[in-house]
Design brief:
about 180 residues, mainly alpha, 8 helices, about 60% helix, globular
Length: about 180
């Protein structure tokens, strides 16, 4: 087994961060992708199979009870019938699809974006800050963002193949550069 270090450098808003990753890091990036994929797939599948998932009570009661700074928004969402109907489908099936995307490494950045978005909403809705502002929901949100940033779908995932799919004699991502935001 050979290993080496890979140098990283990124500049954002005039600030530059540099570092080195050991090549074994690829296995931990894959592990993060698979862990989040399995967690979301199982959670969504449980909700879908139970057939009894309803977000109404949570939206109207949990955020005000835990002092969420956006409790009024959650109560308003929970009081809007069409929105509750949407959430009752979007949450379980969204979790299933996000989980499958991560498990198979297909449309990984898109799946990770929606996973991070859901975790942001869970963070705001669950609002447990007794031990600081960082909790499990916040940490999961950062894991999703890391999976997207690392292009984890290219590691033993379908995105590596989808990106190279031949479209008019050139790879998909070269023909349509915007697909890089969905794949990887």
């Amino acid at each position: 087994m050979s290993s080496q270090e890979v140098r990283l450098r990124s500049t954002v808003a005039g600030f530059t961060a540099e570092g080195r990753l050991h090549t074994l890091s690829v296995w931990f990036i894959l592990a993060l992708r698979l862990m989040m994929g399995l967690a979301f797939f199982q959670s969504g599948l449980d909700k879908v199979l139970s057939g009894s998932f309803s977000a109404s009570g949570y939206l109207q009661n949990a955020p005000p009870a835990n002092g969420s700074p956006v409790a009024d928004l959650f109560v308003s969402m929970g009081s809007t019938g069409w929105f509750v109907d949407f959430v009752n489908v979007a949450v379980p099936w969204g979790e299933v699809l996000i989980g499958l995307g991560l498990l198979f490494g297909a449309l990984t950045r898109l799946a990770a974006f929606w996973g991070a978005f859901m975790m942001l909403l869970f963070y705001l809705g669950n609002w447990e800050i007794d031990h600081g502002y960082i909790n499990g929901d916040f940490a999961y949100m950062l894991v999703f963002l890391s999976v997207a940033a690392f292009g984890a779908g290219r590691i033993l995932g379908l995105d590596a193949y989808i990106e190279q799919y031949d479209v008019g004699g050139e790879p998909l991502v070269e023909r349509y550069p915007w697909t890089r935001y969905l794949l990887g």
